Amino acid sequence: MEYFDQFLIQFSGLSTGNHQYEFHVNDTFFKNLENGLIQKGDIEVKVLLDKKPTLMTFDIEFEGKVEVECDRCASLSDMPVQGEHRLLVQLGDSYVEEDDLIVIPKTDYQFNLYQHIYDCIALALPLRIVPCEITLDKSHCDQTVIARLEAIHQEQIITAQETVDPRWDKLRSLGKDKI
Q: Which DSSP state fits 15?
């Protein structure tokens, strides 16, 4: 059995109505995904499936934490994540995916949620990940890297002040001629 088979929903034998599923997403989940941004985490996922004859509505709720790399200093830190997402899956003639609607062939009898669960978690993260700005706790940051970044920034300021574009000198001299 492949690891992600546990996220398969066998819908063909289910009665019409609501069905509830619970999953635990951990480090193994993230390590089995190729090219994933998240490598470690501990998240509880609840899925409520509302099954109708040709349409299934998956309401996905999740809460937990993931280990992320700081965009500023590259230190690893745990970040809380939580969210909700609704996914519609319709039975049709062929496979089509649009935003939150997926059409799967009528011949399919199961649907795997693993990629959708990962996408929900990844989209719950902020675009810019700097944990010390979120928690206001600078102890998360690698102080050596922060000090080096500050030194580089100061060097750039000094270099910019010392370097004068020769075009400005010519423009200044034009103004002095008129006085």
A: P
Sequence spans of domains, the chain: 3-137, 142-178
Residues 49, 19: contact at Cβ < 8 Å? yes
Residue type for 31, please?
A: K
Assigned token pair, 5: 């088979």
Task: Give φ, ψ of 126 to 5 degrees.
Answer: -70, 155
Record the tokens describing residue 118, joined without a space.
């990962």
Task: Using DSSP, state whether 98 is helix, strand or coil.
Answer: strand
For the stretch 2-60, pLDDT in tens is 889 999 999 988 999 999 999 999 999 999 888 778 889 999 999 999 999 999 999 99
Contact (Cβ atoms closer than 8 angstroms) between residue 66 and residue 40? yes
Q: What residues contact 165, with CB distance under 8 A and at least 6 apart?
A: none
pTM here is 0.75
SS3 56: strand
Provide the 3-class DSSP secondary structure of residue 73.
coil
**One-letter amino acid identity for 25?**
V
Instruction: Please give the biggest Cα pair distance in the chain.
Output: 92
